[in-house]
Write a structure and sequence with these properties.
Layout: E1 2-4, H1 20-31, H2 40-53, E2 58-59, H3 70-80, H4 93-112, E3 120-125, H5 128-138, E4 155-159, H6 164-167, H7 169-175, E5 179-183, H8 185-192, E6 226-228, E7 235-237, H9 242-246, E8 268-269, E9 285-292, H10 306-311, E10 318-325, E11 344-348, H11 350-353, E12 360-365, H12 366-369, E13 373-374, E14 382-385, E15 392-394, H13 408-424, H14 426-447, E16 457-460, E17 473-478, H15 488-497, E18 500-501, E19 503-505, H16 510-517, H17 521-530, E20 536-542, E21 551-553, E22 564-565, E23 571-572, H18 580-584, E24 588-590, E25 605-611, E26 614-618, H19 625-639, E27 646-651, E28 654-659, H20 662-672, E29 679-683, E30 691-692, E31 698-699, E32 712-713
Helix pairs in contact: 3-13, 4-13, 5-7, 13-14, 14-19
Length: 722
């Protein structure tokens, strides 16, 4: 879901743009009670986080990973240098210390998510991805025509907006003969609101049937999508079977049937002669529904009420279980597992408090754990075992689901992360802090526009609906004054040079990403078959197609010698061809609008360039107002067609520095404070269209400067309606 920025004065936010200090004062007046954890950010942030980042650096990738605090690491190192830890599978004193820390950590995780220890297990994993893999591997899938009472296949229902790690569950489901249903948010709502309808009634989401999608062109010989390589500029057919390129082959069978026995915790063990618990007559067929609490791509929040609605679909013949991907959600929101009770909840702790990495947890409802079919077993997960026929009895959960020695030193570090969150006021305080920044940043980003009134950004998500449906993820594409979209890598290069830590690409969420970019699954498979990695994908579509921009942006092949503003709308100075600045200055050239011969205009094909990748800026517990201000100012100064204009005007003995950006005024004042002559810094108010009429203006020889002509209207880069 995309939201175009408002273009009228009536809908523009009435926030005066000024210096950082002015903007922050206005922000605090409105959000001071929610921002900063009652002064913690102002007092502690610099020493806890800022000193490590470095001056002028702004971290805006909190959905990728949180930033740990210095005091956390100090506490962890202090404990490691003062205590001895041993393998928790032993029983000596150092091992007992490790076991104590593991048990404490399980309790803290349950407490953090308000999960009843009588209802949930905490299974430690290497991260959310491993937890999701375990769900897919252990789930009791049923193929159509099995000996179950319903004789119907299991259904794996998942929203299009899901992380790749969730989509990977589908590989296990597909291998086991289950039915896959990729559904939109709207389809899920409709299904859950329809009483009595099983998942089998769900239509798979067909992108080609949507009115917003365009049909593909296939050559008569290969029947594969035809695409143009943006690197070579030549037509080429897909060189390999697209379907084969998309197939994911799972190498581990869902279950095996040798030996005898059942795990102590009630889980199915691979020893059982009928190891799939639902394969016996009269047992229900199990179905799995997966969705994220928070979409890691657009930042949409999904209804947690779905969990109860899915469970309500269960009957004597069908049992519906829910996997709630909380990896992104848990970093900025409180998840109350007493209020909602999904069956499987994967999390990664580095997303909560930055450290340790390589450690996560899968919270499993005990009732659901009894249905799992575990095949592999390792050290620590079995109580009895013989070598001759690999007979074994699994340990009761959680140990029975944790193969090998746990990362006990990392687990011991978790308490310091939870202590940090508690000192900030808990997840409710984190959510309020992040929402205050989201609200302000969205208003500023939505108001950015070019001189012709066209929005600077194509913002995805549901920001206009507020915190009930949207979190602090800003997924966007930069749009030129002509309406063309810039490839994400161009924006990323400019952002990196400006000290902004952003993320570009599809963010491991191909469903929403490709939909927003206008790329069909068939085109993506053809792109993979060709090994295409360029910034632009050019596809052949019927002349009636309206998807895509109009410019092809090629990386420069020659060195630029002068400061330019390219036709792609990116300001840059002289730089070598392979530098970030040169990439920012990439010239746009109009694509040819030729067509292929055909019996009718509707069947004539034209090349349609599709810029790949969008840009994600995401906020978290340690985000600052300064980070958000830097993001807004960077986008405005770098990509709008308004110029930051500086001039020196001689008035008698005075040198008047004319600058049309208030933050730049502060910077100029600092650089000329030792000039000797009296200076008078003048801000020209762009919102009023103030004209600079000094005919003898001279130009500051700085990269990015543009000549201020007589009578030229100097616009504020971030002008807002008064």
């Amino acid at each position: 879901m995309a939201a175009d920025a408002p273009q009228t004065a009536e809908t523009s936010p009435k926030v005066p743009y000024g210096t950082l200090e002015e903007a922050k004062a206005a922000f605090l007046e409105q959000h001071g009670s929610s921002y900063g954890y009652k002064g913690w950010m102002e007092q502690r942030w610099q020493e806890e986080v800022g000193d490590r980042l470095g001056q002028g650096q702004h971290y805006l990738d909190y959905t990728g990973a949180a930033q740990y605090t210095t005091s956390m690491i100090t506490s962890i190192m202090s404990e490691l240098t003062s205590c001895a830890f041993g393998n928790p599978h032993s029983r000596n004193p150092s091992s007992a210390k490790s076991t104590q820390e593991v048990n404490l950590a399980r309790s803290l995780v349950l407490q953090h998510f308000n999960a009843d220890p009588e209802q949930y297990y905490v299974i430690f994993t290497k991260g959310a991805t491993e937890g999701l893999k375990m769900v897919g591997e252990f789930f009791p899938w049923t193929a159509a025509g099995s000996s179950s009472s319903s004789s119907s296949a299991s259904n794996f229902v998942y929203t299009q907006a899901n992380h790749k790690s969730v989509l990977g569950i589908g590989a296990y489901a597909k291998r086991a003969g289950a039915q896959l249903h990729c559904v939109s948010r709207e389809h899920m709502d409709q299904w859950l609101a329809s009483p009595g309808k099983s998942a089998a009634a769900l239509p798979p989401m067909s992108r080609s049937s949507s009115s917003s999608r365009r049909s593909l062109s296939f050559s008569s010989s290969s029947r594969r999508p035809s695409i143009i390589s943006a690197n070579s500029g030549t037509f080429a057919g897909a060189a390999a079977d697209a379907a084969a390129a998309a197939d994911v082959v799972a190498s581990v069978p869902v279950s095996i049937g040798a030996g005898a026995g059942v795990a102590a915790g009630g889980m199915s063990s691979s020893n059982s002669s009928s190891s799939n618990l639902n394969s016996s007559s009269g047992a229900p067929t199990f179905h799995l529904v997966a969705f994220p609490a928070k979409d890691n791509y657009e930042g949409q929040l999904y209804p947690l009420s779905w969990i109860e609605q899915v469970h309500a679909k269960s009957d004597a013949s069908n049992t519906y279980l829910v996997v709630l991907d909380a990896a992104a959600y848990a970093a900025t929101h409180a998840l109350d597992l007493a209020a909602v009770q999904p069956d499987f909840v994967p999390v990664s702790f580095y997303k909560l408090f930055g450290y340790p990495t390589g450690l996560g947890a899968l919270l499993v409802r005990k009732e659901a754990a009894r249905q799992l079919n575990k095949v592999y077993f390792g050290g620590g997960s079995v109580d009895y075992c013989t070598a001759e026929d690999v007979w074994h009895v699994l340990s009761a959960p959680p140990a029975g689901l944790e193969d090998g020695t746990l990362g006990y030193l990392n687990i011991a570090a978790l308490k310091y992360g939870f202590e940090l969150l508690s000192s900030l006021g808990g997840m409710q305080a984190v959510a309020a802090h992040v929402e205050s920044l989201r609200s302000w940043t969205y208003q500023q980003l939505a108001a950015l526009q070019h001189s012709n009134g066209r929005p600077l950004l194509k913002l995805f998500g549901r920001h206009a609906e507020g915190l009930a449906n949207q979190c602090a993820i800003f997924q966007f594409q930069v749009v030129t004054p002509d309406g063309d979209r810039l490839p994400g890598m161009l924006v990323e290069a400019a952002a990196t040079a400006a000290g902004l830590h952003l993320r570009t690409g599809c963010n491991c969420n191909p469903g929403r990403c490709l939909a927003n970019l206008g790329i069909t699954p068939e085109e993506e498979r053809a792109r993979a078959a060709q090994g295409h990695t360029g910034p632009i994908l050019v596809v052949m579509r019927p002349r009636t197609s309206s998807i895509g921009g109009r410019l092809i942006f090629e990386p420069p092949t020659t060195t630029t010698n002068t400061s330019t503003t390219s036709s792609s709308g990116i300001k840059a100075s002289a730089a070598s061809a392979d530098s970030p600045c040169a990439l920012r200055a990439a010239s746009g050239s109009r694509s040819s609008r030729g067509s292929m011969a055909g019996p009718s205009a509707a069947r004539q094909l034209v090349p349609v360039p599709l810029p790949l990748g969008s840009v994600r800026a995401s906020l978290g517990a340690m985000s600052t107002f300064e980070d958000c201000f830097a993001l807004v100012r960077f986008l405005a100064l770098t990509f709008t067609d308004f110029e930051v204009c500086e001039a020196e005007v001689e008035e008698g003995e005075k040198i008047v520095h004319v600058v049309n950006d208030r933050q730049r005024v502060v910077e100029v004042r600092a650089t000329i404070s030792s000039a000797g002559a009296a200076e008078d810094l003048c801000l020209l108010d762009g919102s009023q269209g103030t004209q600079h009429a000094a005919a003898d203006a001279t130009i500051d020889e700085e990269p990015g400067s543009e000549e201020c002509e007589e009578g030229m209207v100097l616009y504020n880069m971030l002008s807002y309606a008064s």
